[in-house]
Amino acid sequence: MMRLLPNIGLALLITLLGSAVRATESAATTPRSMTTEFICKTTLPALPAGTKEASLWIPVPSNSEWQKVESLTVEGVTDYKITKESRYKNRMVYVHIDAAQAPLAITVRYTVNRKEVRVLTQEARHPKKASEAYLKMNLLGEKSLPIGGRYLTLSTEATTGKTTLLDKTRALYDHVLQTMQYDYKSESPKLGQGDSDFVCDYKKGDCADLHSYLISLARTQNIPIIHEFGFGIGGVPLPSPLPTEAKISTYHCYALVYHPEYGWIPVDASDGIRWADRKRADMRDYMFGNLVLERNAVAVSLGRNLTLAPPQKGEPLNKFIYPYLEADGKPVKLQVEMSRRLIKLPEPAETPIRS
Predict the structure, then answer these.
(1) d(Cα 246, Cα 255) in Å, to the nearest integer?
(2) CA 267 to chain centre
(3) Block mean pLDDT (10 aa), the chain, length 355
(4) Considering just the CA atoms, what is the radius of gyration of the chain in Å?
(5) What distance in Å separates the CA atoms of residue 73 and residue 322, rounded to the nearest whole number?
(6) What is the DSSP letter of 249?
(7) What domains sit in the chain, N to C, each tagged with a CATH number?
(8) How many CB atoms lie within 10 A of CB 351?
(9) Can you tell me the distance from the alpha carbon of 157 to that of 57, in angstroms, rounded to the nearest whole number?
(10) Whole-structure pTM value
């Protein structure tokens, strides 16, 4: 019996070491997560004289593979509806307003648990289907998102020698990083409008602009791609420590590219440029297929040129990230204040992403 003890001890040690390795591997592959409360305060002005009625749409997030909406409350009105538009199923708070009610303040609060979107850093592939109609919808040219023409020349040159969907998409991502600049000083006369033709000539823009250019290139190459908009809790790099509460001054967006083995792959060309400008090739590569959690604390809306629910009387919305108001069918400017509060802090990142 005494001679067996060393063998038992060795076996136990091997078992413990194996468990530790598996735990470490699991921790390394488990996406980071965070929980944040977002507050959107919308102030409606006194409406123009003679106005009979007004309609207000406030975007709110939906559940997805990467996020769960834990709560949603509306303050300031009791008569409202949660509606959903037909193309991308974006959700919104809809309020019908009598002119006599304005001025009026409405506050929407939503709490979201968000996981870090890591697609191409995960080894496992799981085939994911999307309907043919949905994919075709995201191959078409749209207002401000033209396809063909010079985008055929540019995208063909950028993807020369590439045969797979993933390699072509990476080549287009690299093309954007090599030929475009991030507009740090907000100098563009069309900043944030997402006008592909303008960006193609101007060579500079914000996240909406740069990804619009990428979308025109990708759809021209028959690659299904969508714009997605949301909010983060910091810039590039992130502040350290992260403020628990803060105002939100702008949105963030990226593109999603469909691949049958991965599903919708995130491609963040604008942050790729910002990290490249900081000599961080590792993060530039990470932005192709993954997202930084703190930069993408919530996804709010998909797509461009949207018809809301119920339909607005004006033109389709170029993007739907902030509240939209119509008075007797005409757009009215709103005062919107966005803020956020961290409820559950994210786990430390494996790669330093803070200043």
Answers:
(1) 26
(2) 10
(3) 42 42 46 95 89 94 97 96 97 90 90 95 76 97 98 98 97 98 98 98 98 98 98 92 94 97 96 96 94 96 98 97 95 96 86 63
(4) 23
(5) 17
(6) -
(7) 33-114+306-344 (2.60.40), 117-301 (3.10.620.30)
(8) 9
(9) 42
(10) 0.89
